[in-house]
Amino acid sequence: MVRFENVGMRYGAGPEVLRDVTFVLEAGSFTFLTGLSGAGKTTLLKLISVVEPPSRGLITLFGHDLATAKRGALPALRRRIGVVFQDFRLIDHLSAFDNVALPLRIAGRKPAEYASDVEELLVWVGLGDRMKAIPATLSGGEQQRVAIARAVVAKPDLLIADEPTGNVDPEIGARIIRLFAELNRLGTTVLIATHDRNIVETARARELRLVDGRLVELRMPRP
Ligand SMILES: Nc1ncnc2c1ncn2[C@@H]1O[C@H](COP(=O)(O)OP(=O)(O)OP(=O)(O)O)[C@@H](O)[C@H]1O
């Protein structure tokens, strides 16, 4: 599903942020990406979601080599990925409901088909009473939950989330991880970057850790 071979990344003439990063995410896997602040977690997620190209190395996504894939093919690859970035990237003038519904609208689904799914998801992330609110009137944690609901609503092939529990109470954080686990059970490959040791320790999942720009495999799932 995702393959990195000797990937390196630097911003401009700066130091190398990622060095010789090699790993595979198998289809249907659930993985945590950990590492100290500044270790390069967000950078790695940006490379997977085709936001930035790597400085060197090979990235294969859904069987396509990103270096040789035609530019016109990239939007279709991106649409197979649900992404939760730390800055949420919500559409300012759309309500929480309409932000979450956006991937379904883009996929050509009709409101009558998806309205109840979107509502159910917003209730699950604790926003049942904020569906009509626009992002500017939501707290950071509420905006993050809208971004999470939007990333999962279309059941993407791959979900990548950057600190998805960073701004929420532990109870909501646990619900979000359950939501990701359920999505994973339905077939989505999941990669979560996090500082939160609690969620890493309680989930039975693989952990990849970035140390000085290099990737270390810490743990495989228990049988
Ligand atoms: N657009 C950019 N231009 C220049 N340097 C950058 C850019 N984005 C990130 N960096 C640098 O790359 C390094 C890794 O940053 P990155 O955001 O990937 O780390 P992180 O592990 O996600 O950190 P955090 O846990 O604090 O979010 C840092 O030294 C950062 O300053």
Layout: helices, strands, pairs:
Layout: E1 2-10, E2 16-25, E3 30-34, H1 41-48, E4 56-61, E5 64-65, H2 74-78, E6 81-84, H3 96-106, H4 111-124, H5 140-152, E7 158-162, H6 170-185, E8 189-193, H7 197-202, E9 206-211, E10 214-219
Parallel strand pairs: 3-8, 3-9, 6-7, 7-8
Antiparallel strand pairs: 1-2, 1-4, 4-5, 9-10
The structure holds adenosine-5'-triphosphate.
Adenosine-5'-triphosphate binds next to helix 1.
Function: Part of the ABC transporter FtsEX involved in cellular division. Important for assembly or stability of the septal ring.
Protein name: Cell division ATP-binding protein FtsE
Domain ABC transporter: 2-223
